[in-house]
Amino acid sequence: MRLVVYSEEDLAGRNIASHLVRHISFSDSNVGLCPALNHGDLYLLRVGGPLVNLTLPAGGEEAEWVLCLSRHRSESGRRCLTAHTPGNLRGSADLGGRPNEVAISNPPLQSSLIKELYRSGAELELDCQVSVEATHHGPTELPCPVTFVEIGSDEDAWKDESMGEAIAKAVSRALLSPMEAGKGALGVGGGHYSEKFTSLIIDQNCLIGHIVPKYAMSERLDNAMFRACIKRTLGGCVSIFVDWKGTPSNFKESLRELSQSLDIELVRV
What we know:
This protein is α/β, with parallel strands linked by helices and about 270 residues long.
């Protein structure tokens, strides 16, 4: 079972879902006692409450992975199409999940979504940014990998039909096509929206899961969090991509030692 979830309270999630049902031939079904739509082993589920506090209904515990259709908010209000893995890299959990805990990342799905978002945004001639985001917010406790795909960054964008269509096209293509195989990578450094990691995904077919940004490291991130991000990656990590200019110098040696101890390639980007 693969779960695609949206909240009835989320304008962007509802927008995306309304377009997704036009791209995928769903039938009425259930996940446990919850009404749902299904296409083979793919289930579309509407839930109440914010997705950052998502819990799986009875019958959904055995899901292979979860994809959340959601809104993205930023102070800039810039329009964007994004994907990311949830997690709290520091000792706070203001937006769901638990402090110092990350969800299981799904590099093949996340990277496929970024590539398809770029493709659909270009096809629809949207004036918006496509970016993979750093790891942030909840949920962190689900037993399977979790990925968010989002419309940003304000109410006008969340309700925009073309933005909903762009993500629906990207999601349907990503889920109905063979997914890129291979082990994933951890991204380290740079800002919340990483042009370098986005480019690695789109141009070099890299599979990137968790991303630890510079701002998280500047606030005394525990080195153990790097290990947690690697451990909580579907299929494991084969590489650590480091935005060298965007990483505090006091963490660079730690990352070298970590890559050597785990026999993982460290790649400066």
